[in-house]
Amino acid sequence: MNRDTVIATALDLLDEVGLDAVSTRRLAKRLGVEQPSLYWHFRTKKDLLDAMAEAAMAPHATAPLPRAGDDWRDWFRENTRSFRRTLLMRRDGARLHAGTTPTADLARLRRKMDFLLASGVPERDAQMAMLAAGRFTVGSVLEEQADLGSDLPADVPLIDHESAFEAGLTLILDGLARRVGT
After folding, report:
1. Rounded to an integer, what distance in angstroms lies between the CA atom of residue 128 and that of residue 168?
2. Which one of 68, 82, 109, 157 is CB 3.0 to 4.6 Å from 63, fit for a cystine?
3. For residues 77 and 172, is the Cβ–Cβ distance under 8 A?
4. Cβ atoms 56, 83 nearer than 8 A
5. What is the pTM of this model?
6. How confident is the model at residue 150 (pLDDT cuts 50, 70, 90)?
7. CA distances from 149 to 29, 53, 144, 166, 170 (A)
8. Alpha helix ranges (H) inside 18-160
């Protein structure tokens, strides 16, 4: 049993039972080991959850970085969409990700910020736009993954999560474009 196997098995367990039911006891049983064996790889459950969150973000973490000449608005929109798609790939993906710090992704994050700055976005606005888009996306996916649509009265309209996400993302981009003057 190695660290990668533990993480992969934990993510499979997450998809099967949801975040609330993921436990080190259940994971150890799935792996066919005693629970203390997990502490060889992860000192705490939080360490395990952080590693799971990092692994779950791999599709977004390998998405293409912006290149010189790219339109910052098009890139920002696609980057945010990629983040959303990645969160939706896992059951409770947004809950797993919420509150984590992207320590493994700092170099990529710096490249993204450098691109926005080179595109004429003021530094503080770039920081706040990335933060706002990230939090908006996590919140949108949290609501989507917790959708109780089938429990609503028949006269309450259902939310089209993708359309709502796109509308909110457009508002963020339009506000940032006004700040940039483009």
Report:
1. 15
2. 82
3. no
4. no
5. 0.91
6. low
7. 34, 27, 10, 19, 25
8. 24-31, 45-56, 58-61, 72-88, 93-97, 106-118, 123-145
